């Protein structure tokens, strides 16, 4: 059986606000409190941390908190989607804001070095458009590519991962699908930019996450991944395995088949749930998937896929996952 | 030509937060500032106000601000979707919170009386469920009906309107469609509960807003309406007329055909736009629709609809709306 | 353990055409051949048969074929969605066609009597509209209600079930959701019209099938059901359990909880699969669900639902379904 | 004012079947009858023809029919999505069927030469998958690329265009989006394969058609286009301009801005409408769009887009399209 490493975005342990519950789904928490909650999850080893964080918490304090919880840092996610960047980070119409996005990301790069993390995680959620006629699509896409390409060139010692999503908070996000993101990365022409595949974003975008993973792997660009679940029509960030267990299984099947090695991360937003319980729930399911992969009849499945035999393939997968 | 009255939810003039831009899309505004902004819209006469509002603003101050801006109040929207009610208002599993929802709505009823408004607007956005197996659907729906039925009985002198929406912030909202809401209202057996039809919510739910309006009218329950636009897959609350001008036209055609008289309200969330300009934009389009209704060949359209002649009907509508 | 009866629409064993593969997904089959295929499914007891069928097959021949395959008839589905009714059956703009729809359905009623079946199954898939402005929504809905109400009054000894669906082949179908259908049935004011809940249609319409089942049961109108699966955005009619096993489990949990007794039917379209294997696949999964319901900790689940405790409820359901 | 050339797929003038109305939406028509109907459309100059067509119609007869209707051929669409190819054309698990797909496309290439047409139009609608675990995604995508790459190499004198679509008839189509298709074309490494952008397919896929057009142009691959309309959730192939006039306007704005020159084609399926009237309706709207582009304040719009000023840009577009 494989030895897995589990991770989570530190925001999994935050308190959320949205446009209705503007006073939040509970009392706000400090980054240190979030780290201590992450430490309570049974099998969590690594976290992804947003930066910059509140000025009253030092990097040293974060380090201490991580250490006492046996956590290390896999990535730093620069906050390029808050008020300052609400009209875009890399694609903001204001060149000064685009410069600021670059600075914030370079600061994140320094944190990656400081924490010995694996990458800067870029989620340009405000880069896109809302209305027909609002933008010059050629220019917007050019800025999308140049902004990240520049970062990669400035930091050749580091990796950058782009987490695409079809939309939200913009009505259209420029890095909206796996294929679009790979097109953009190819245009950058740098080796150190890859994709972080969010299982739920792929579902939301009408993709088969297993297919998207394979595509990124075949381009040598699957640098990271995380999981959650949704109803395919929005980024609900529900607990992994609660709605689409079979496609989640196919996703991890594809990763193992390709000998992809990396952290199995969670990107969940437990708005109304206990965040530690929600993480434990998901990790328990991921372990079940891992054990199911051990049980799977790989040769028979490959043969069924070779025939594109849907029923045959499903029977084999079902046997492993449901045990009948 | 008809004399129209235009209105807007006062939140049209707020600053928004969401789960990403937690520091907001701009500096926060007080209710008084929002009213003053509403006053700048060229043709706005009435507003819908959320309550309770910040304790440092008195009802008298609100009244003064409304008066100086020539605005009156059409409805009060009790805040039954913030932190306290994040697991539900009328359907909260905690009977104490359900009681609190009743109190907050009764307080809103008193404000309706104080302002001489038309109704209490109920938007039970947190009433619903997220996960399979989470709730007892029979009980949840019973609570949905009883909670509002009780309010109506407690305030027989007032009207209550339910604004349904398929989802957000819950993954499923119990008052999720026009038909479901009418079923619930019929079960209440009271005369003073009706529907506020949000054009965008109907589109989002896969309904034809014109059909939903007709259905509510035929049940004697179309007590209010508001408009906006979206991409049919989420409640984007974009500016009315920017994406679906033809269905918007059909919606108002249906209202006029039924001699429905009421305020043409806006429920828009201009996250990144100037809120006054966004309201003016929408109202200009609504005036164009009103003028197009004057130009419309009503008899020819009725004849085409009698034949269910899609091309014939569209030609007549197009002529009125686009002028060719 | 419960004794289940499994059924299927006879079209499960047909060869399909669509707008692209106009020469079909294989050679056409006669009704007798379809019945013989149905007979090969391991645990199938009842079928729903479309009528009228090809004139060269007599009722007696059908009876013989059913008998030799140990099959009985649960329902007759009149073909009110083919060329003659392509602009609507009950809502056709031509009164003569509406009369023809009535005749075809009365003929189906006679077959129900002849076969000792349970109901006439109405699927008015062509009743609806495509374009904005195409129809008078008031009239269309009135025709929808009157057409079926008339049938029910003409045949008080029989049951009629309406199978709603959001759309296809019309862009909007008038019986488009559970709540809308119940509203229509209430307006008919007859005891012998109910709903046939198609699991996939509910998913497609953004409903939770378990919630829709509960609603129909609470109105005393859940007369039948069938299952399949899809990607929530279209009526894919895939094999039950292959995409949404957890919501399928919740659906049957709701039926058993309410002591609903009836046939567990399949409504699948195995375009490219072996139809017998596809039925066996689904029935095997349904048996697994039935066994999981036996294993389920019902009291603990009721307690979790009483708290609306999503994580707690999911853990209990997961334990029963996945065995961990 | 620009001189436009209008075209249509010849299937616009066919009679359709679907999985319900298996006897068709009217009496079948011969290819010659379809051409004669195309000839009745007021401003139609070119058609795209499916091949092979019925053996009882010769190429010469087609040529004569085209001539008498003043029509020429823009493309030939090989029928690689009927029964023979129902499990895939380029990606069929059977190498013999893949070979057959190649033959059918080479036959189409010969017809392109014979008619002096512009391209072979490839719509691999059966190339994809339905169920989780059904296919080896790496292999499927490799076959998708190699199959078309081989065709392009065999016919270096001709152009091939790929018309992508998210799905239907497969639940997932391998050429499912603009970006995915461009990735595939880049992998082929040939100059003579491009994209045919179907406006409705882009909408259906959650794309902004204007953005997709710009992306294809920037890759030098926008070889063709066609228009229609839908409700964004399915390929409804409704009449262009009846639902999304503003995005249609933005699409043509983008084409003119880039000096893209080509035929404005229709890909509509008027199931229940008069096919000539449906084409005339669409072309009238396209002419209105063309005239609106003449009226548009291009400099002001560019300036607004430079600021990403949604309201400003919409006002300018609205002025041109609606005349107020």
Automatic annotation (TrEMBL), chains A, B, C, D:
GO terms for biological process: L-lyxose metabolic process; rhamnose catabolic process. InterPro entries: L-rhamnose_isomerase, Xyl_isomerase-like_sf, Xyl_isomerase-like_TIM-brl, Xylose_isomerase. Its EC number is 5.3.1.5. PROSITE patterns: XYLOSE_ISOMERASE (PS51415). It is an enzyme of class 5 (isomerase). Residues 51-274 form the Xylose isomerase-like TIM barrel domain. Keywords: Carbohydrate metabolism, Cytoplasm, Isomerase, Manganese, Metal-binding. One of its GO terms (molecular function) is L-rhamnose isomerase activity. Pfam families: AP_endonuc_2 (PF01261). It is found in: Cytoplasm. Its main location: cytoplasm. PANTHER family: L-RHAMNOSE ISOMERASE (PTHR30268). This is Xylose isomerase.
């Amino acid at each position: 059986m494989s030895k897995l490493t589990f991770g989570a975005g530190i925001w999994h342990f935050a308190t959320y606000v949205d446009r209705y519950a503007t006073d939040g789904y509970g009392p706000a928490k400090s980054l240190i409190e979030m780290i201590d909650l992450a430490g309570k999850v049974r099998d969590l080893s690594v976290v992804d941390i947003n930066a910059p964080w509140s000025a009253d918490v030092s990097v040293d304090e974060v380090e201490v908190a991580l250490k006492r919880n046996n956590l290390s840092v896999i990535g730093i996610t620069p906050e390029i989607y808050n008020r300052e960047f609400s009209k875009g980070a890399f694609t903001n119409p204001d060149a000064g804001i685009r410069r600021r996005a670059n600075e914030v990301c370079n600061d994140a790069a320094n944190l990656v070095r400081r924490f010995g993390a694996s990458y800067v995680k870029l989620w340009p959620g405000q880069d896109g458009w809302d209305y027909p006629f609002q933008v010059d699509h050629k220019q917007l896409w050019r800025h999308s590519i140049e902004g990240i390409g520049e970062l990669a060139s400035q930091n050749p010692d580091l990796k950058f991962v782009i987490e695409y999503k079809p939309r939200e908070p913009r009505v259209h996000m420029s890095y909206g699908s796996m294929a679009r993101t790979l097109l953009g990365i190819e245009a950058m022409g740098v080796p150190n930019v890859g994709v972080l595949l969010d299982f739920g974003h792929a579902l939301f975008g009408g993709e088969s996450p297993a297919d998207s993973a394979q595509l990124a792997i075949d381009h040598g660009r699957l640098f990271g991944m995380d999981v959650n679940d949704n109803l395919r029509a929005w980024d609900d960030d529900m607990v992994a395995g609660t709605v689409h267990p079979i496609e989640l299984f196919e996703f991890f099947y594809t990763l193992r088949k390709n000998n992809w090695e990396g952290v199995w991360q969670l990107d969940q937003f437990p708005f109304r749930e206990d965040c530690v319980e929600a993480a434990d729930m998901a990790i328990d399911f991921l372990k079940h998937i891992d054990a199911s992969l051990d049980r799977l009849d790989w040769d028979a499945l490959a043969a069924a896929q070779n025939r594109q035999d849907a029923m045959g393939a499903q029977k084999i997968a079902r046997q492993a996952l449901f045990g009948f």
